[in-house]
Predict the structure.
Amino acid sequence: MNRPVLQLEKLGKTYTLGKRTVPALSNLNLTVTAGEFVAIMGPSGSGKTTLLNMIGCIDKPTSGQILIDGVDVTDLPENQLYKIRRDKMGFIFQTFNLLPYLNARENVELPMEGRIKSKTERTERASKLLALVGLSGREEHRPQRLSAGEQQRVAIARALANDPAIILADEPTGNLDSQNKQGIIKLLANLNAMQGTTVIMVTHDGEAAHHAERMMLLRDGKIIREKPGTHALKKNMYAPAAGTPSN
Amino acid sequence: MRALLVIIALGFALAILVSIPAGVVANQQAASRITSTLGNTITQTEQALNQTLNQITCSLAPSFGGFGFTGSGSSGSRPSGGFGGSGSGGYGGYGGFGGFGGGSVAGEFGAGAFGGGRANPMNETLYSNINTSISGVAAVEPILQVSEGKNETVSFYGHSFTRLVPQYIIEGVPLTSNLVDNYPILPTDIVSGQNLQAGQTGDILLSQNNSAYFGVGVGGTVNILGTNFNVVGIYQPTGVEDTEMLYMNLSDAQTLTNNTGYITSINVYAQSPSDVSSVASAIGSLHPELTVSTAQNELSALEKNQPSSNNAVTAAQDSLASTNSTAIEEIIVVVAATSLIVLFVMLYTVRERTKEIGTLKAIGFSNSTVMSQFMLEGVLLSAIAGVVGIAIGVVAAPRLASLLLPTVGRAVGFGGAPGFGLASTVTVSPELILIGFGVAILLGTLGSLYPAWRAAKIKPAEAMRYE
């Protein structure tokens, strides 16, 4: 069995709105092993984004534990957490969140800045990653000169910049038309199959979720159902050596 | 676009910031110049008057010379009309208040500058009785003063006028041993060579300006109206003498200028200062056509003038003090305004880019990296504005300073009149440029400190929800 890259134990989060406390997550347990493609679905307000923020170390739980790559990050201070985010996580956002005044390559280089000293090394790696997501030749384009699908590809390349343990995708297809939607989901599935990248994706989109290995349904801060997605069945089509991460 | 507007606004603030100290420096210079100019003038005139307390100056009442038309007869001799239109030919006025008005003998070109009068020639023999029939008179010094220069033709309402631009003034004084030895008829401050001696003819004493004008020094010869003179000495004017005045024997001057038997004024020396007023009134009744003035008149006029000069000095100093306090207030306001502009612009920028900051933090930027990023941005903005501001300041400092600061000359009532040479030009010195740039960077740093800290404290989870 593969090593776990994410372990959530009895995770709870409550928000305080005035005098009322609103539970967002309660007593949630989840283990994701390296190389898995997990889709989390659920209606609005079910706690999907809260969960993703906990996993991404940009929000803190009120109770329970989070282990990433075996490291307990629950009580890490901010000056340690940013390194976890930088080195272990790759974020993909619904609205892409590229920096408009940087070109595609520079956007991909951003997360490497604190980690890779050599500028040429960063540039080379960014170009390679852009090639991997199918954007060879568009390195110098600014976001406004790229289509929505292309922008999301740049964001995926950026998420891969530091070879993270987990890719966290928050509604990655939410702002795309159906053709681009297909492309992005296939790209994520491919990366998962070929590179062994662990992907945790939050989505409304049932069709997209079906490409995952595991689908889980979140309601009122709890996982109420889990089933295998179609990707699990097709995985052999993408990667003959399924389950063995290539890096 | 917004950055451009901000840079222009900040630039103007910083331009004001460099213009104010430049204005203060200029005002300080103006004030000290007013103080020293008035101080010197009064001291010099006082000294001069004390030398001549026994002296009474008599001349024919000056009449306005008018402007003779070209073509009227000229004999080439043009007795001077004295100073400031007073016609007395006396004491050099008060340090140059009032222009020099050249005059001319009757029938000559009206050489008087606007407002200048001319001295009428006096027949020397008519006035010999001053020495003999008035008691209390110690000595009499007849003087012939003639201005020489270039005729300048001016066109005025279609008519051509000629006026004299004086280049030197011939002062003919009687070189008798009594006068030379006992009375202040000659300059005292000889800087090279020696003074004129009793009985000398064919010799000349030049002022420094004369020496430069003729290009001749002690021992050389100078040709005055066709006659050669030996230069025996060069003097430095002390405030009593006109700077263009050359001295020679009266008889030489009369021959030279074709004025034999004529003079332009008489200095009468009383036996003692207490005799001056009785002698003066005796001269007045003997020769009612003469204008008689005494050094005592001049002294009392000077004394009347003293308080107003003192007032001017005090006003200059008061005005300087108020300039300084205004400058300090304005600098405080501008510094505060500049920091506030940076503060609000940067706060707005941070707010506007909340999502971007959240993204940067989510993909692994540390708080300190985010903070330094925004600090750098604020400092860069201020640095560019600093360059713009200094550029504006260098060009517009005089205007800005006069808009923002009370001006010393204005308070004193001189209004920086160019004739007085008292107004100082406002210039932005290299030191001030460096200081201005330093202040721009400093204010940029201070103003962006809080916004950058706010940026660093943004929680990425909340920032993501921010649209």
Summary: The helical segments of chain A are 48-55, 78-88, 104-109, 119-132, 148-159, 178-195, 206-209, 230-238. Chain A touches chain B at residues 53, 56, 58-59, 78-79, 82-83, 85-87, 89-91, 93, 97, 99, 110-111, 114, 158-159, 161-162, 170 (CB under 8 Å). Residues 178-195 of chain A form the longest helix (18 residues).
